[in-house]
Amino acid sequence: MIGESELIEFLDEFLSVDDITDDTANGIQVDAPGEPKKVAFAVDARRDVIERAVDYDMLVVHHGMFWGDIDRVAGRAYHLLSTLIKNDVALYVAHLPLDIHPKIGNNVLLADAVGAYPEDTFMEYRGTEVSLLAMFEPPTRADEIAARLKEVTGETPFVYLPDNMVKTAAIMTGKGGMALPAAAELGADLFITGERTYMAYNQAVDMEMPIIFGGHHATETLGIKELMNVVEHDFDCMTEFISAPSPI
């Protein structure tokens, strides 16, 4: 089975999946027979992605199928699961382990993309600090930081208080607005996250905190693409990134 392969053993160890408590099951969520010779990578285990991955042995994603206990397999869950099983495609998930990885994590790669230097982590969630503090030297305007992010993701970020100068940025990719109050308490000059939420925007206005919303999907393509590069370099298998953008 693919779940017993050398590649899975490497991924589990490299991403420390057994050491990180999450809202989803990281690692193999759906196993399949054979060896992983053709591996697809994507942000989401979404219907259009899974249907494009049927010719691969394994699909590696950031957002998997199962969040919490499984009480029934019907409707959407049945279609996704049956498509994987009928085509012998394994599903591997790396959620928080990929967000916070010190080398190829979404947070550190976003910091690098905008020219900031990681300094510390903050905001504990389920026993793990999931947000990043990063420094700009010299201080940089918020709109310039947003422009750098657009160059990497191809998506146009939303920026509040674009003229403010930024020395310290707090970063949490995806839907990270819950980290904004903690970022403000730590004295960050800017908060960068992915998904644009009403509450996070209102909090930013109340705190007069510059904020950049770069897109949930857009800010979380970074880690999965770099993980693909690691696998391609270290293992004898064909890889492909399945692009399936979301406007959110």
Element layout with pairings:
Elements: H1 6-14, E1 27-30, E2 38-44, H2 47-52, E3 58-63, H3 75-86, E4 90-93, H4 96-99, H5 106-113, E5 117-125, E6 128-141, H6 142-153, E7 158-160, E8 165-172, H7 180-185, E9 190-193, H8 198-207, E10 211-213, H9 216-219, H10 221-234, E11 238-241
Parallel strand pairs: 2-3, 2-11, 3-4, 8-9, 9-10
Antiparallel strand pairs: 1-4, 5-6, 6-8, 7-10
Helix pairs in contact: 5-10
Characterization of this structure:
The radius of gyration is 18 Å and the shape is elongated. It is 34% helix and 27% strand. It has two domains: 2-95, NIF3 (NGG1p interacting factor 3)-like (Udp-n-acetylmuramoylalanyl-d-glutamate--2,6- Diaminopimelate Ligase, Chain: A, domain 1); 100-219, 3-Layer(aba) Sandwich (Udp-n-acetylmuramoylalanyl-d-glutamate--2,6- Diaminopimelate Ligase, Chain: A, domain 1). The protein contains ten helices and eleven strands. Helix 5 (106-113) packs across helix 10. Strands 5-6-8-9-10-7 form a six-stranded mixed sheet, sandwiched between helices. The chain has a five-stranded mixed sheet with strand order 1-4-3-2-11. By secondary structure, it is of the alpha/beta class. It has helices spanning 6-14, 47-52, 75-86, 96-99, 106-113, 142-153, 180-185, 198-207, 216-219, 221-234, and strands at residues 27-30, 38-44, 58-63, 90-93, 117-125, 128-141, 158-160, 165-172, 190-193, 211-213, 238-241.
